[in-house]
Specification:
- This protein is α+β, with helices and mostly antiparallel strands.
- It is 46% helix and 19% strand.
- It has an 8-stranded mixed beta sheet with strand order 3-9-8-7-4-5-6-10, with helices on both faces.
- The longest helix is centred in the middle third of the chain and has 26 residues, at 82-107.
- It is elongated.
- The model is unreliable at 64-69 (pLDDT under 50).
C-alpha cells in the first residue's frame, strides 16, 4: 500500500510512517519508528512534515519533574480523505497558474506549436484538451458538424466536463449549421449562446483559450488543429469579440 502512497505524492518514509500510525492506537513516535523501520531521529522530522500536511495530529502528553515520568509525543492519524483535498487544492492552483506560465513561455520567444490530429479520435482529443484550459472559453460552433463528429455522446461528456471544472463557455453558433439539440444559454451548463448573422455561416468549430486555439473541421475533412501561439490566440480572441458584438442572444 505504501507504494501507492508514494505514487500519490508522499516520499517512502512518509508513506510507511503514515500507514504505521493508521495501524496503531495513539502510538508514540518511537513506536511508529520501529513499526515503519526508520530511525527515531528521522521519525520526528517525518511526523512534523505529515502534521503540516494535515495527515497527523501530534499531542505532547504532560510529564512531571521526575526523570522517570517524562512526557511523551503521541500521534494520531487524520482522515486519509485529506489527500484528496490536497490534490484538489493543487489542481485548482495549477489550473490558474499553467496558463500564466504558458503565456510567459510564448512571450519570451518560444516558437508557436501546431499539432495536427486526424479522424474522429483526433477531433475528440483536441476538443477534450480544452477542458484543461482556463475559464472562460470562447467558441464558434457548427453544431450540426460537432454532433456528427465527435458526436452527441462526446459533446454531452464535454459539457459535463465543463460543469465539473466550472469552465464557462461563450459561444457563437451559425443557424444554418445548427441542430435540433437546442443547447441555448444555460446557467447550469455555464454556457452563453449567441447566433451569428445569417450571411456568415460557419462549417468549422473553433475553441479559443488564453494562449491556444483548437480548430475542428466537419466530417468531410476530418481533422483538428491545436495552435499554441499567443499572438494568434490574441488575434482570434479579438475577432471573436467583434463577431460576438454583432450576434443575437439565443
Amino acid at each position: 500500500m505504501w507504494e501507492e502512497l508514494v505514487r500519490a505524492g508522499l516520499d517512502p518514509k512518509e508513506a510507511k510512517f503514515y500507514i504505521a500510525v493508521l495501524e496503531m492506537a495513539r502510538p508514540t513516535v518511537s513506536d511508529v519508528a520501529a513499526q515503519a523501520g526508520i530511525s527515531r531521529t528521522n521519525a520526528y522530522d517525518v511526523a512534523r512534515r505529515l502534521a503540516r500536511r494535515g495527515l497527523l495530529s501530534i499531542t505532547e502528553t504532560g510529564g512531571s519533574t521526575s526523570a522517570q515520568a517524562r512526557g511523551k509525543t503521541v500521534l494520531a492519524a487524520c482522515d486519509p480523505g485529506h489527500l484528496l483535498d490536497e490534490l484538489q487544492e493543487r489542481k485548482d492552483l495549477l489550473e490558474g497558474l499553467v496558463p500564466q506560465l504558458r503565456a510567459v513561455l510564448v512571450k519570451t520567444g518560444a516558437k508557436p506549436r501546431v499539432r495536427y490530429l486526424e479522424g474522429a479520435a483526433g477531433i475528440r482529443t483536441a476538443l477534450f484538451e480544452t477542458l484543461e484550459w482556463a475559464s472562460p472559453l470562447r467558441g464558434i460552433l457548427s453544431m450540426r458538424d460537432v454532433l456528427s463528429v465527435p458526436g452527441d455522446s462526446a459533446m454531452r461528456d464535454y459539457i459535463a466536463g465543463r460543469r465539473e471544472r466550472g469552465l464557462k463557455l461563450r459561444v457563437v453558433r451559425s443557424e444554418e449549421h445548427d441542430s435540433d439539440a437546442g443547447w441555448p444559454s444555460s446557467e447550469e451548463d455555464l454556457r452563453e449562446t449567441r447566433f451569428a448573422p445569417a450571411e456568415y455561416p460557419f462549417t468549422m468549430t473553433s475553441i479559443i483559450g488564453t494562449d491556444a486555439v483548437v480548430l475542428i473541421s466537419s466530417r468531410k475533412e476530418g481533422f483538428a488543429l491545436i495552435i499554441e501561439s499567443y499572438e494568434y490566440t490574441q488575434a482570434q480572441s479579438n475577432l471573436f469579440e467583434v463577431l460576438w458584438s454583432v450576434s443575437t442572444p439565443g
